[in-house]
């Protein structure tokens, strides 16, 4: 029994597959994905962007393969990056085969879209021979005409039927290393489709709200839709789709998982909105602090609160707490306990120093524990 059952999320039981070395589904951590927006044939530019996504924490990165030159470029791109690469195919089965042969860890395509059973068999063979998994990617905007005619418009039932049809095409080839997405730009439609799909299959689910919008609108929209799904235990891997720098997608994805306690990476900053009571400039401090702490990957919580109204209370649950105090004398908390005061010193510099020290301690403890386990 959990100490705080109101915080527990029971994840849906899905089977586990692998995207390269990254497990997806089962009890694996929920992974965060993004997609490059460079021309894939711009090998240097694509490698550079994938590396930026790796630094931001992306677990898996998708790269579009609209033509033969792009699938050929994977041969140069894949060895230069560490995250597994998903090749986005869509229609042409030959691109899927080339991508599998050129190092992709996963192929995103819909078996029903590539024609005959022989073609499906060829792609599945290429996937199997090269250790690739597959993502079936249903999108409300590109449902099969026959389904649209029958259902009248994109609806959850049509999306789920489409997904299960594609899944069956792979199951008929005894290929079970696949995950499914069922995206729509409308939250109601996407959430209902995923809820129904979650009941209908044990395949891992890649969740996302497609074409969600720009940085602010898309973040809010994705947080509502994906938050709803994640909270109810649905979702094994996710992408937040934003019309913005893909690095932002990764950052938002992690913030979303952190807010639901589903994944921890880096510093979780708890800060107040500030008001006339603030004893230092909270907004500016947090803005600079987040920037300066972006390199920390160790999970940690830091509170930065403008005054004693909420500062001491918030600090009790954090690794490092900071509360503004009168006459420029601020209180620092370590592990929830008052530790020392800070006067006439740069707040950000001081907090960065404390966080870096704490991160090093946590990592050292982790290593000790690993060595101990290995020795036993
Ligand atoms: S913690 Fe203090 S400064 Fe921050 S919003 Fe509340 S009252 Fe204002």
From TrEMBL:
Per UniProt, [4Fe-4S] cluster binds at: 272, 275, 307, 314
Q: Could you tell me which InterPro entries the record lists for this protein?
A: Dihydropteroate_synth-like_sf, Enolase-like_C_sf, IspG_bac, IspG_bac-typ, IspG_C, IspG_TIM, NO2/SO3_Rdtase_4Fe4S_sf
Return the cofactor note field.
Binds 1 [4Fe-4S] cluster.
Q: What class of enzyme is it?
A: oxidoreductase
Domain (IspG TIM-barrel): residue spans on this chain: 14-253
Keywords per UniProt? 4Fe-4S, Iron, Iron-sulfur, Isoprene biosynthesis, Metal-binding, Oxidoreductase
Query: Which reactions appear under catalytic activity for this entry?
Result: (2E)-4-hydroxy-3-methylbut-2-enyl diphosphate + oxidized [flavodoxin] + H2O + 2 H(+) = 2-C-methyl-D-erythritol 2,4-cyclic diphosphate + reduced [flavodoxin]
Q: In which pathway does it act?
A: Isoprenoid biosynthesis; isopentenyl diphosphate biosynthesis via DXP pathway; isopentenyl diphosphate from 1-deoxy-D-xylulose 5-phosphate: step 5/6
Needed cofactors, names only, are: [4Fe-4S] cluster
Q: Which residues form the IspG C-terminal domain?
A: 268-357
The record's GO molecular-function terms, alphabetically, read: 4-hydroxy-3-methylbut-2-en-1-yl diphosphate synthase activity (ferredoxin)
**Enzyme Commission (EC) number:** 1.17.7.3
Which family is annotated? Belongs to the IspG family.
Q: Which NCBIfam families did the record assign?
A: ispG_gcpE (TIGR00612), PRK00366.1 (NF001540)
Q: What does this protein do?
A: Converts 2C-methyl-D-erythritol 2,4-cyclodiphosphate (ME-2,4cPP) into 1-hydroxy-2-methyl-2-(E)-butenyl 4-diphosphate.
What PANTHER family does the record point to? 4-HYDROXY-3-METHYLBUT-2-EN-1-YL DIPHOSPHATE SYNTHASE, 4-HYDROXY-3-METHYLBUT-2-EN-1-YL DIPHOSPHATE SYNTHASE (FERREDOXIN), CHLOROPLASTIC
Its name, as the record gives it, is 4-hydroxy-3-methylbut-2-en-1-yl diphosphate synthase (flavodoxin)
Give me the gene this protein comes from. ispG
